[in-house]
Design brief:
This protein is of the alpha/beta class. The protein has one domain: Rossmann fold. Helix content is 42%, strand content 23%. The mean pLDDT is 93.
Length: 255
């Protein structure tokens, strides 16, 4: 960590999981030629060898034997995407939501036991991990950001617990260079804007979208979960970005 984060970055993207920053901001990242870019993947690990029924089903649906195999594959996917878009990455290795639990004498009490709970916001028992993630984010920004470096957090569209945690942390930071990105593909069905935010459209060249698409296709473990198949991904991607821009948001009173 120290060697990587001793560098100063022009752009830092905080990504709940391995793939979220590229899914949502890949076009912008592709366009930043010559800039030093860091993607910080927050929830990239698991707790223990016992899983909830929901986690077991999820791993089985993606054809992974266990969580160790799953995260090993995902980290390799990030390396491939990073080579395409030319960014550095850092895995924080906090446990992903479906693997978090409160240990009991006989059993583990998992925080998110099904999809409904996972997409209902932050469980009140996640206070500890919010504190730990916030501390890590503060340390990274202190050590790695250039003086005017731009910082990106998810809007939390879709209400996934891990996305909401990062959104909450981003909103707590007082910095005029903080921006929020639309969580793709959740944002396809939900557009979020309020008087609290101002929107900024970033128009991109076709080659930037082509690189983004190529990078997303490296996350093979997620294509089925998010899009059913590669055909479904291509269709949704082309329709959503047909106007040639990604949209970002910033807190209006900071401007």
């Amino acid at each position: 960590m120290k060697k990587l984060l001793s560098k100063k970055y022009n752009y830092i993207f905080f990504s709940p999981h391995i793939d979220d920053a590229v899914l949502s901001c890949g076009g912008l990242i592709a366009s930043l030629k010559g800039k030093k870019i860091l993607v910080v993947d927050i929830f990239t690990n698991f707790l223990g060898e016992k899983y909830s029924k929901h986690a077991k089903y999820y791993l089985k649906s993606l054809k992974f034997a266990d969580a160790s195999e799953y995260f090993t594959a995902r980290k390799e996917e990030e390396k491939k995407a990073a080579r395409i878009l030319n960014f550095d990455f850092y895995f924080c290795n906090f446990p992903e939501a479906i693997f978090r639990f409160e240990k009991k004498i006989i059993f583990n009490n998992f925080f998110y036991k099904n999809t409904e709970q996972l997409l209902s916001g932050i469980n009140k028992r996640d206070k500890k991990i919010i504190f730990l993630v916030k501390k890590r984010v503060d340390d990274i920004l202190k050590d790695s950001r250039t003086r005017n470096g731009k910082i990106y957090f998810p809007l939390g569209i879709g209400n996934h617990a891990d996305h909401k945690i990062l959104n909450k942390i981003g909103l707590s930071l007082k910095n005029k260079n903080i921006f929020f990105y639309q969580d793709f593909p959740y944002c396809v069905k939900e557009y979020r804007q309020s008087n609290y935010f101002k929107a900024k459209k970033v128009f991109l060249a076709n080659k930037d979208f082509q690189l983004k698409s190529k990078a997303i296709r490296q996350y093979k473990s997620q294509l089925r979960a998010l899009f059913k198949n590669i055909k479904g991904f291509k269709k949704l991607f082309s329709e959503f970005y047909r106007n040639g821009y990604e949209e970002y948001f910033y807190i209006s009173q900071n401007r």
